[in-house]
Give the backbone structure.
Amino acid sequence: MTEILRLAAFSDDPKGGNPAGVVLDAAALDDRRMQEIAAEVGYSETAFVLSRAGDRYRVRYFSPLAEVPFCGHATIATAVALGPGEHVFRTNAGEVPVSVGDDRVATLTSVDPVVGELPGADLTALLSALRWTAAELDETLPPRVAYAGAYHPILAVQSRRRLAGLDYDVPALKALMQSRGWTTVQLVFRATGDTFDVRDPFPVGGVYEDPATGAAAAAFGGYLRELRLVPDDATLHLRQGDDLGRPSRLTVRLIPGEAGVRVSGRAVPIEV
């Protein structure tokens, strides 16, 4: 029988954070069975460890509807489940080092980020699906598409209230995201110079919204650095999940001379 661990990532409270399924011994599972387990678990993602060679692990991630190339919160959860130390996850997006401390704080270092333009037609379609207007956007954080293992368009609004009132057209947004290969949409409000409130719709994974999205946090860190919107050496604080009643806290670290983006958070077991 397959053992499925359940942990809440980016929180020290099992009632907060983003729940992740973790299967530490998935060597005997084929794609169909992994997809079935992810659907049965019902979390945004379930991580499957297929093999181990020393401190290196082959890891794949499945949402309830499809495989995703990389998932940050499930990476944090899996690393904490493996225990303190230095680990390297070989994912579909590339190699991701993860360190875990005795305090159950895990830090992943993303693959190299890439930031590109969001075409005007895509922006128009995205705003329509979100039921937002261009006038509500924050001009200091221009729309882009960012990648750090998965692709995420980034949109920032001027008002925290607008972010809190998220009510998007699910079929329209899902179809747009599928056609563009986007995993989530990173919606942002800048609260202070280094603190951001974020929300991430995830209809392509069969989930209305992610309570915490480590892959998008890494992509967002790459975006902020690429556009020179924060110092080269910066620690950023992302607040996510509050509007869902599952508060999550993600720490993003930019290191001069280091291409990848570091994303840190705790993970705690969920009792079922």
Notes: Helices lie at 31-41, 72-82, 120-130, 160-164, 170-180, 214-226. DSSP finds six helices and 17 strands in the chain. The chain has a mean pLDDT of 97. The first helix runs from residue 31 to 41.
